[in-house]
Amino acid sequence: MIVDFSQIKENLFIQKHEDALSWDESILFLWGGRYGAKTQTIARKLVIQCLRDPYFRCVISRKVYGTIKNSNYQTIYDFVHSNNLESLFKFTVSPLEITCINGNKFIAKGFDKAMKTKGIEKPTHFWAEELSEYNYEDFITGLTTLRGVEKPQFIGTFNPETDIEITDFWLYDKFFKHNLSKDFTDNYNIEILVNGEIEFEKLTVKSVHTTSDNNKYLSNRERAIVNQFKLDYERTGSQIAQYYYKVWTLGEWGNRFVDLRYYSSFSEILHIKELQFNENETIHLTFDKNVNPYLSCQVWQAIDQKHFHQIHEFALAHPKNRTRIIGHEVIKYLNSINYYAKVFIYGDSTALNDDTNQEIGQNFFTIIETELRANGYLATFRVPGKRSNQFQALKRRNKNPNSTNAADFINSIYDGLVKDYSITIGNNCKISVNDYINAKQDKNGKIDKSEKDTKTGGEKYGHFSDCKKYFICEYLYEEFEYYQKHRQNYL
């Protein structure tokens, strides 16, 4: 029997998945929003290869074995039967397998029991459906299963959501963190354990991102479901509705939903954009001097003195979490964007205290200033207790902005309630965004810093939230002072 797929190819795959059909390198990721045809495309790709290739053995997997039958297994079954190919395949449920008339086959394996993935002889493909449910050890197990054949392939299909922080999530950290584009081809070196020995494998990875907008075969009902996520968000503006719209409709990476955010009005949809350095505007640097889990600095610009853009971030972990090193990194960045004009400095007033690790009279800001001046930069300070504007210093002297009022003020800017000011975060500032999402407000309205980083013991969240607070409340000093006295005017 000859199966000619060329005659119906146009109806098999959505256009954006065309490149995935012939991709035969190490790893293929199809990911994005709901109804992006990820699972359907891979099922169809693999059925075609099963019929075409002389030798083909594919592991179809889910984190929990019991979910396979109603997901990737069922999708293969539906495709085979909808194209009148059922005479070429035998489907069994005990064991859960699909066998082709030519001897090729699909084998179902789950990760809920450690032994489930062992004992598979020379698979050519490993398809992990809902890969975002897997942990890194599961991924490595699946990857190392692919041995003994030429050009094996690991395939992952998933929606970009996780129950932990995105920056801590292995899938995002290892494959997506360094790629601003959702669609990319890249090389990675992965450390794996083989027979008790550590080996490094060079993997070529292809990422293809789709949403329902890319799928012209959706039914009216399916389109209505996806559109409802957007309508719910526009109608309610709630963080939960935003989460579903962001992940399921737009196919963007989504953190677990956090109640009682310090910046409760910050929206990953409304307030994150791709930003570029504006050569006509001044650079503002804002620091938080805590060294664990990292020493932090943000780069801001005030466009027309009203629209605040965060264009860059520094998060220096040990052993680079030192004041002089972050000074060097800032200077390197300023040189890279050909900026040699005045810079404004913001930060925590307590960093003005003498540093016991430095000479008498030296503190965090004097060290930063020394580094900048040595490289030709003039630094103007807007730190409580070290302001160039003495009139402002008399009004609030050495005090940082009130944390509760600062949160309300910045949230009001996000909500559009404070004149025509706006705040936009560059999509490259991923650690800052993670901090804005996960920093909670304690019972007193301050940033809750009780959660500790497991590696360093430092406060896990709040450092970049503090950086933003120091900058916005100091740059808009007069507006912030007025807001604290007349808050009811903004409600």
Search tags:
single chain; 491 residues; alpha/beta; Rossmann fold; Nucleotidyltransferase, domain 5; 3 domains; 7-stranded mixed sheet; 14 helices; 22% strand
Shape: elongated
How would you state the average pLDDT, rounded? 87
**Which fold name is given in CATH as the topology of the largest domain?**
Nucleotidyltransferase, domain 5
Supply the helix-strand structural class: alpha/beta
Rounded to the nearest angstrom, the distance between the terminal CA atoms is 73 Å
Q: Which residue ranges are poorly predicted, with pLDDT under 50 across at least 5 consecutive positions?
A: none
- In DSSP terms (H or I, runs of 4 or more residues), the helix count works out at 14
- Assess the beta-strand content as a share of residues: 15-25%
Largest sheet: 9 strands, mixed
> What CATH architecture of the largest domain would you give?
2-Layer Sandwich
Q: Indicate the percent of residues in helices.
A: 25-40%
The total tally of domains equals: 3
Tally of strands: 18
CATH class of the largest domain equals Alpha Beta
Spatial sequence of strands, sheet with the most strands: 3-4-5-2-6-7-1-9-8
- Rg calc: 27 Å
